[in-house]
Design a protein that fits this description.
Elements: E1 3-7, H1 12-27, E2 31-36, H2 41-46, E3 50-53, H3 58-61, H4 86-107, E4 114-117, H5 122-132, E5 136-138, H6 161-191, H7 198-207, E6 212-214, E7 231-233, H8 249-256, E8 262-265, H9 274-287, E9 292-295, E10 312-315, H10 320-323, E11 329-332, H11 336-344, E12 349-351, H12 358-368, H13 385-398, H14 400-413, H15 418-430
Parallel strand pairs: 1-2, 1-4, 2-3, 4-5, 6-7, 8-9, 8-11, 9-10, 11-12
Helix pairs in contact: 1-15, 4-6, 5-6, 9-13
């Protein structure tokens, strides 16, 4: 029996998709462990996977430093820059990575046959694979390799022209190399490997044509025309949930009491802004004359700060795969996983991107015709925030063409099997 270790770090959106991948591998007869933060141990074990601990949990540390280490979904929170500006943030991010490195080395047992690596863990995992002499496979959730087709996803989504896009993409990789430099040096020394910079290791992998499977759909991002062979877009990896899972009774009762509501949630964004955002969301939903479900998330959205209203409900963590099909529209931060979850069920989206890759996905949804024009999160602090949100919700719920586009996109996503493609690639490497 083969033993596969998946490593993933960040927030919920950075971890959950790998539970679906792991469950698929396990169903095929492989022993699978998922190394991640303590906060997600129940998620991992529920999927039937072995949990192994990684340090630097952003939920318990209340630190959103992993956003600077790679374009993973939802690791960033909306909070002011650290004192000292960008340099201080880079130092903090490097410290996060350094702490992570030791945990990744500890997570791999002697019987590990294959490493599957998220974007945040890949620059460290490759050293481990080299030391153990075992294959590894990168599984990023967003496009990271330089391309002329679009600018790096963390740059805000604005094209710089083909030459500029490629140049910016190469620069973003060098920034990541710098962030991982200290951690890589310590890790290679610990593993008894000769000195090599992250850039050197990355270029070796590129020259060798090492395969990379991207866990998003070509419905949203067609494979760039100038990517090398071995960089493949395989479709989304959906978070695992039990086949007999059901929505909580309180949610079912709310849904049965009236027309389909509008979902509003910001995932791991906007920590500490729950009271303001809750009042804003409630006011917009009432003025739009629609019912609403607020998902608390890291912001702490709640109906407690609003007047009593039978048309509003606050919920905690609920699988989007169960909830979103029952909505008339979804309002969210547009992390990669949440954006895809809305498209998957054919429900129109109101994108409110906060940072990093989220403006990129918001623009993709709008271009596909399944979303309204994005409302940047910072604009929710203006005097016209409620009016803008009301207008967008009305557009999303009342325009048949937008729902038609969403339905068509959902049909296309239904033909994809991203986890199945990972299984095929993993078994090729194991063979």
């Amino acid at each position: 029996m083969t033993h596969i270790l998946i490593t993933a770090a960040g927030s919920h959106g950075d971890i959950a998709p790998y539970t679906g991948v792991g469950a698929r591998l396990r169903a095929a007869g492989h022993e699978v462990a998922l190394a991640t933060h303590d906060s997600y141990a129940p998620l991992v074990r529920a999927a039937g996977l072995e949990f192994r601990r990684l340090p630097a949990d952003p939920r318990t540390r209340r630190a959103d430093l992993a956003d600077a280490t790679g374009p993973e979904d939802a690791t960033e929170q909306a909070r002011p820059p650290a004192p000292g500006g960008t340099r201080a943030l880079m130092r903090q991010a490097a410290a996060f990575v350094k702490e992570l490195g030791g945990g990744i080395a500890d997570a791999a047992r002697d019987d590990t046959d294959l490493l599957l690596l998220s974007a945040t863990t890949a620059p460290l995992g490759h050293h481990l694979a080299e030391a153990r002499g075992i294959p590894s496979l990168e599984l990023p959730l967003v496009p990271a390799a330089p391309t002329g087709d679009f600018a790096p996803v963390v740059s805000g989504g604005r094209s710089l022209g083909r030459w500029g896009n490629r140049a910016a993409g190469r620069l973003s990789l060098r920034v990541i190399d710098r962030l991982y430099a200290d951690a890589a040096r310590e890790m290679r020394a610990r593993l008894g490997l000769p000195a090599a910079t992250p850039r050197t290791v990355r270029r070796r992998a590129e020259a060798a044509g090492r395969p990379v499977l991207y866990g998003f759909s070509e419905v949203l991002v067609p494979r760039p025309s100038d990517w090398r062979t071995g960089l493949d877009v395989v479709g989304n990896w959906w978070p695992w949930h039990a086949p007999d899972d059901r929505l909580p009774p309180v949610v079912e009762d709310f849904l049965a009491a009236g027309p389909p509501p509008v979902f509003i949630g910001f995932g791991s964004m906007a920590g500490g802004e729950g009271e303001r955002l809750s009042a804003l969301a409630a006011a917009a939903l009432r003025r739009a004359k629609v019912r609403g479900i607020l998902q608390s998330g890291w912001a702490g959205l709640t109906t407690r700060h609003t007047s009593a209203d039978d048309d509003l409900l606050t919920i905690g963590e609920v699988p989007h795969a169960l909830l979103f099909p029952r909505m008339s529209a979804v309002v969210h931060h547009c992390g990669a996983g949440t954006a895809a979850a809305g498209v998957r069920v054919g429900v129109p989206t109101v994108p409110v991107p906060v940072t990093a890759d989220q403006p990129f996905w918001a623009a993709r949804l709008a271009a596909l015709g399944v979303a309204t024009a994005p409302i940047p999160f910072k604009d929710l602090s203006t005097d016209h925030a409620v009016a803008r949100l009301v207008h967008a919700i009305t557009q999303a719920t009342a325009a048949p063409a937008r729902r038609d586009h969403a339905t068509a996109a959902a049909h296309r996503l239904a033909t994809e099997d991203g986890a199945g493609e990972v299984l095929k690639a993993a078994e090729r490497l194991l063979a």
